Amino acid sequence: MIIRPADKKKDATRVGDVLSRAFHDDPVVRWLLPSGRGMHRMFVTLTRHVHALGDLAIDGDRVVGAALWDPPGIRQPPLDALRSAPGFLAAMGRRVSYGQLLQTQFHRRRPERPHWYLAEIGTDPAAQGRGVGGALLGARLGHCDGEGLAAYLESSKETNIPFYEKHGFRVTGEIRLPKDGPMVWTMLREPVS
């Protein structure tokens, strides 16, 4: 398996494909998109216009996992926010307001100090249990450690918490999403020296 950086334009469809498969049963994605339709478009938009960096896990000629990250201090440029609007509207329709609620809730909880933000990470269900997620995490966590910076994420599945804890994250809080939304756990990983 190879972990390599994703090209925001060339690889966005591949990232959307694998994350759509990985998040097919995710509580937050199902809250945003109850029918599941629009999931691919949402992940492609997140890749192209919202998150700064992406990584792909490739096994042979298949993409088996992907992660989207934001380094410290990086915010979505205003032009990219405008460019993302049509993709989110097409993906979510009227529920685009749920996406805005989600982002508001998440931004309020992020650490004030500089940190790497893991926005999305997913493994194709057919490749789960083969170390794909750990390899994707390890690729960027090494950067965090080298820079002496923390990493932060929100876990939308309680069953994923032990996986993140195995990689040094600890639960720091809980977020109950509005409008009968699911619970989300905030997690922080201090740098390892």
From TrEMBL:
<protein>
    <submittedName>
        <fullName>Ribosomal protein S18 acetylase RimI-like enzyme</fullName>
    </submittedName>
</protein>
<dbReference type="InterPro" id="IPR052523">
    <property type="entry name" value="Trichothecene_AcTrans"/>
</dbReference>
<dbReference type="InterPro" id="IPR016181">
    <property type="entry name" value="Acyl_CoA_acyltransferase"/>
</dbReference>
<feature type="domain" description="N-acetyltransferase">
    <location>
        <begin position="1"/>
        <end position="188"/>
    </location>
</feature>
<dbReference type="InterPro" id="IPR000182">
    <property type="entry name" value="GNAT_dom"/>
</dbReference>
<dbReference type="Pfam" id="PF00583">
    <property type="entry name" value="Acetyltransf_1"/>
</dbReference>
